[in-house]
Amino acid sequence: xxxxxxxxxxxxxxxxxxxxxxxxxxxxxxxxxxxxxxxxxxxxxxxxxxxxxxxxxxxxxxxxxxxxxxxxxxxxxxxxxxxxxxxxxxxxxxxxxxxxxxxxxxxxxxxxxxxxxxxxxxxxxxxxxxxxxxxxxxxxxxxxxxxxxxxxxxxxxxxxxxxxxxxxxxxxxxxxxxxxxxxxxxxxxxxxxxxxxxxxxxxxxxxxxxxxxxxxxxxxxxxxxxxxxxxxxxxxxxxxxxxxxxxxxxxxxxxxxxxxxxxxxxxxxxxxxxxxxxxxxxxxxxxxxxxxxxxxxxxxxxxxxxxxxxxxxxxxxxxxxxxxxxxxxxxxxxxxxxxxxxxxxx
Length: 346
Fold this sequence. Notes:
By secondary structure, this protein is an alpha+beta fold. It has two domains: 2-236, no CATH class; 242-334, Immunoglobulin-like (Sandwich), CATH 2.60.40. Helices cover 14% and strands 32% of the residues. The chain has five helices and 16 strands. The chain has a five-stranded mixed β-sheet, with helices on one face. Strands 2-3-6-5 form a four-stranded antiparallel β-sheet, with no helix packed on it. Helix 3 (171-182) runs antiparallel to helix 5 (209-219). The radius of gyration is 28 Å and the shape is elongated. Residues 156-225 form the Dockerin domain.
């Protein structure tokens, strides 16, 4: 019922001067709405509007302007200039564990939204070109296991003032701001991407000064098609976990309990769940004809007489607590030699 009442209140506001309704004292054009502007119709040179934010990226600062923004530990910084964003990847992929760090991007506009690459200092360099959404894929080689791991994040780019992300800047954006500000209880449902779009005056928070800044911007032509300022927000995409540097420990002889070790890695920072294990035996080291050993589903296995002359294999499947990508790629490790029997009696 409360939501319906709010909708009724917004309709008459849109019919008359929005600024007058807000008590800002600046008249709108006849008709009571702001002129529509194509959010991507500005000139060719984008100006990055600070702060640049990030959402749910556990290794990255939440804001380019506030190093301690929503952070309880030191994180990688977001360095934003008018034209580019630099993100240091050294903490995310330390040089003593990873090398060959690269980045690529994909967007629906065939690469016209942004360009990304990793420079010689292991910094992710992002240059935006237009409004849109870009998927950034960062890859790194895990040195010990020679495994390529992947971290996918998204970059949302929108015209400053395009609150509802409909490609236009008009009174609908002011209405979206009003809806947010009037419904205090619903604020937690807004994402960092949405909150960043609503921060019109770029002071790092959303308040009544933002609809005022939106409407005043039009009165002096600071917002709209002639303005090249764009708002950027990075967001984590869910990636599957990895089982790295898996090894078997113990002699390949009957009666010996062999164990396995493995390193869990998840680029998103998702916590590990129970690993899945399955042991096999095969006639050769290739494992082409390996067969499952029933009920051998733990990280340890005691070699039996049935394994003599066979190679042992262990499949490990990493699992995380993530709801979207809980299970990673299965890795297989093999014993260094075929199983030997006990020594012959004297």
